[in-house]
Structure formats: structure tokens, C-alpha cells
Amino acid sequence: MSDSEDTTAAGEPRVVLVTGGSRGIGLACAEWFLARGDRVAITSRTGSTERDLGADADHFLSLSCDMTDAAQVEAAFETIEATWGPVEVLVANAGVTRDSLVLRMSEDAWSEVIDTNLTAVFRVTKRALAKMIRLHRGRVIMISSVGAFIGSAGQANYAASKAGLFGMARSLAREVASRSITVNVVAPGLVETSMLAALGEAKLAEFAAQVPLGRVAQPDDVAGVVGFLASQAAGYVTGAILPVDGGLAMGI
Predict the structure, then answer these.
(1) Is the pTM for the entire model greater than 0.90?
(2) Engineering a disulfide at 94: which of 20, 185, 221, 243 sits with its beta carbon 3.0 to 4.6 angstroms away?
(3) Which entry of 158, 164, 186, 227 is annotated as an active-site residue?
(4) How many structural domains are present in the chain?
(5) Is 236 annotated in the active site?
(6) What DSSP line would sit under the chain, residue for residue?
(7) How many CB atoms lie within 10 A of CB 114?
(8) How does pLDDT run across 112-148, given as a tens digit for each residue?
(9) 40 contacts 16 by C-beta, under 8 angstroms
(10) In a domain, 79, yes or no
(11) Cα 36 from chain centroid (whole Å)
């Protein structure tokens, strides 16, 4: 796949928005698109990244945005559009966890996770699609989780929010297919992020033993699949759910 295949039909860099792009999977996705010459905006609550991407202002924007706040989402889109034009690729990655066994889970813990991981994805996708429909092109990639397939004790709220992306994506895929817009979901498994690494080497080895491929994923493993779904090579892929889990949820 050449770099030109990842740009618009006119050969211009695309405008990409990655939510939750300050670290982990989101940051790896931002780096993937930047490496191919796209213009990339990321959002996070802090507006900063865990490492310097070395990108110039013509290709990179880091915006502070709480995705549960409709006014902040609108402001972020207006900034991106005023700087580069409409978003052509959306990677809806922002998410939170508030784990607890269900009998101990508060209403607030349930609502915060649903609002961030599901409702906010609806909000940002709706805003992006409004301009993609006018362009007659676009890519939407939602980041779910293997937890949506297999469940995990203490994560009823998280699993519900990530499973909800499947139905939303497939409904939207049917709605916008006639405008050459694709909507897909990537479901990562165990990914070696700062949060997982903090558990220590022994715990990482325990997790890796559960994975048929024998290791946890790196953020780049997920970013490459996201990049594929955003490319012309995936122009005939929509409504798909792609596990990137080393076989952890195989057969489910």
C-alpha cells in the first residue's frame, strides 16, 4: 500500500481526528496517520500527549476536549474545520473505566462509563458524519474491546458500553453507505499501555499466557488495523468488527 492510497482522491493529506489521542492506542493511531502525511488532530482532557510526536503545526493539533460535553465537542470540530477543513477520518477511541462488581457499582460509575464510551461516540460520530455526507466520502473507526465479547467481572458498565458500539456502527454503516462512507469497529484485546504495564511483569506474563499468540499487543498492532480500515484498500469493508486480540476471543 503506497502513501498515496491513504490520501484523498486528489492526493491531498486527509484530515484525521483521533479522540483520546494523548496516549496508548490513540497516540499510536495519531503517529500512524502522521507518518503517512495526513493532518491529524487529537483530543484529550488535558490537551497534551505522553510523548512528543515531533510534528509541525501544519500537520498536528492537540486539543483539550471533554467528549461528554457537547459544547466542547462542537468547539473542537470548529477549530479543526477552521484550520484544515472537515474531518475525513474519525477514530473514536476515547474511553474510561470505573470497575466494580455490579452489586457495588454506583449509578454514577455506570453513567460515566456509558456517557464517555458510548454516548460520546454517538455525539462525535454524528458531528463528523454531517460533513462527510456532504463530501461523499469518509471513514469512521470506533475502538471497542475484547471485553465486549467475553465479559469481565467488575466491568458490566465497560462491557455494555463497548458492546453498544457494535450495534451503533452497523446501523450507521447502513445509513451512510450510499455516500461512500464506511463505519467499522476494532476490538483490541490486551494491549501493553502504561495502565497495563503498571501491573508489573508477573501480571503481564499471566495475561500473555491467556492469549493464543502468547503475548499482549502493542499499541502499534491496533494502529495498523485502524490505518487499514481508513485506507482505500478497505473501501469495500463496512459494518465489520475486527478483533485485534491475538485470538483471545476466538470463536465468540
Answers:
(1) yes
(2) 20
(3) 158
(4) 1
(5) no
(6) --GGGGS-TTSPPPEEEEETTTSHHHHHHHHHHHHTT-EEEEEESSS--SS-----TTTEEEEE--TT-HHHHHHHHHHHHHHT-S-SEEEE---------GGG--HHHHHHHHIIIIIHHHHHHHHHHHHHHHHT-EEEEEE--THHHH--TT-HHHHHHHHHHHHHHHHHHHHHGGGTEEEEEEEE-SB--HHHHTT-HHHHHHHHTTSTTSSPBPHHHHHHHHHHHHSGGGTT--S-EEEESTTTTTT-
(7) 16
(8) 999 999 999 999 999 999 999 999 999 999 999 999 9
(9) yes
(10) yes
(11) 18
Question: In angstroms, how far is CA 198 from the centroid of its own chain?
Answer: 22
What would the pLDDT profile of 198-247 be if each residue is shown by its tens digit? 667 887 788 889 899 999 999 999 999 999 999 999 999 999 999 999 99
Cβ proximity of 12 and 36 under 8 Å: no
Q: Are 53 and 18 in contact (CB under 8 A)?
A: no
66: in domain:
yes
C-alpha cell at 8: 484523498
The answer to whether position 47 is within a domain reads yes
Q: Which three cell numbers stand for residue 206?
A: 499471566
